[in-house]
Write a structure and sequence with these properties.
Elements lengths: L7 E5 L7 H13 L6 E5 L5 H7 L4 E2 L18 H6 L5 E3 L2 H6 L4 H13 L4 E5 L3 H9 L6 E5 L15 H14 L5 E4 L14 E4 L6 H13 L15
Parallel strand pairs: 1-2, 1-8, 2-3, 4-5, 5-6, 6-7, 7-8
The structure holds 2-phosphoglycolic acid.
2-phosphoglycolic acid (PGA) binds next to strand 8.
Amino acid sequence: MGKKESKILILNWKMQPLNLSQALKTTQKLMELCWFDFDIWLAPPTIYFLPLKQKFPQLKIGLQNIYPGKIGAFTGEISTAMAKANRASFVIVGHSERRVYFKENLRIFLAKIKSALDHQLQVIFCFERLNEIAIVKKEIKKSPLLIFAYEPRKAISSFKGQSIEPSKVKKVKNYVQSFFPQNLFLYGGSVTPQNITSFQVDGFLIGLRSFQIKFVSQLINSFYSNSSISGKLSGHSSGS
Ligand code: PGA
């Protein structure tokens, strides 16, 4: 996948909801929103991945985490090979919560990215600092399947939830694109209906509140009422 006009909206549900019936209901509601040119990519907890995929085959559904390997004795893990075989649309790597709570580091993320790309899986690499980019450049072969998501830890709602200046995000985007000019660049961390239009990026990663349909619909509404695209927020279009 190369550069494109429509924006990607990744909904990282994190560890919610409690049961499959809620996950199915919420996804059904999501399908009823009009997305215009938004590409909605859903990252539910892994336990809901297959039933959601079966019920909503047209929706891009991915995994919030992955283990770099094929098959073997790794209790509790899901491999990139399994993700590929079960048609995950993408995997998220490097999220701040993986760094803080599960003590994962760049060495682990590089192994995950390599393994995902070897399996032709789209990877969303969430990075926090600029110095990660040069290391990725050195270690990872060029691939359009790699998407960068700038997620400064302090901006994420589960940490400080402090807003980041759009000009700072633009600078980071320029920096990343000086290494990876062909790759998509997303921003994540306390994105709200109030600030979503101020970031010049290819899309957004929405966390905790992405499980609230009302919030997602407000984000989309706000984006389009403040952009040059006009239209009625009704009907439905597929995000796959
Ligand atoms: P937030 O998180 O939208 O809850 O701030 C973003 C993320 O976790 O990627």
